[in-house]
Amino acid sequence: MRAADLLLRHPEAWRGATRHPFLDSLRDGTLPQEAFEAWLGQDYLFVGDLLAFQARLLARAPRPAQGVLAGGLVAVEDELGWFEARARERGLGLAEARHPTTEAYRRLLDVFEEDPYPVAITALWALERAYLEAWGSAAPGHPDYRPFVEHWTTPEFAGYVAGLEEAADAALGDGGVPEERVEAAFLEVASVERDFWEMALSYAPARRLGS
Fold first, then answer.
1. How far is residue 149's CA from residue 152's CA, in Å, rounded to a whole number?
2. Does a structural domain hold residue 74?
């Protein structure tokens, strides 16, 4: 089994994770600023959760996978700073309450942490691949949102996702993990990614600094 096989087995679930009206409206400029700002605050919380998950995954990864995971860990920490800078530009506070969808994603990462390494690395690849494809679907992006689209569609990010796929394939090739669990983890990621886009269209506006 290879990681990319999961994309072929579940095209509808994957489409739900990577194509959404939220992304379409980023491209055509019809997304309300309040919806985007709500997403920004919640995704910032998710990235913090991802940092913790990935740090623990690195600690149990086999030596050949440590390079890509360590590089990704540095990039995720940089991402938090990037979010903070963008929030300051918009006058936003990022200390928002967690939406239930954001909390559900955190709990899912906790589940993956208890899974065998091949399941966890495949799940990490799936969520990063979903992010890359989703933002690619919004390209080039309306001028109001183009810096964000460009940030998550760089060749460097695509290279990182490719590195994760190699790591996942190596882990899956070693066997010993039921394919059913790997497949279930992939579908769980696809589902919560779809839910996260949906949440952004319905969540209450983010609070502004001083409000």
1. 6
2. yes
Tens digit of each residue's pLDDT (9 = 90 or more) over 91-109: 887 767 889 999 999 999 9
Phi, psi of 208 (to 5 degrees): -90, 155
Q: Six-digit token pair at 155? A: 């060749």
In a domain, residue 170? The reply is: yes
Number of domains in the chain: 1
* CA proximity to 117, closest of 48, 59, 31: 59
Residues 6 or more apart from 208 whose CB is under 8 A from it?
Answer: 91, 92, 93
The whole domain housing 173 covers 3-202
Report which residue type is found at 164.
Answer: L
Task: For the beta carbon of residue 28, count every other beta carbon within 10 angstroms.
Answer: 11
pTM (predicted TM-score)? 0.91
CATH number at residue 122: 1.20.910.10
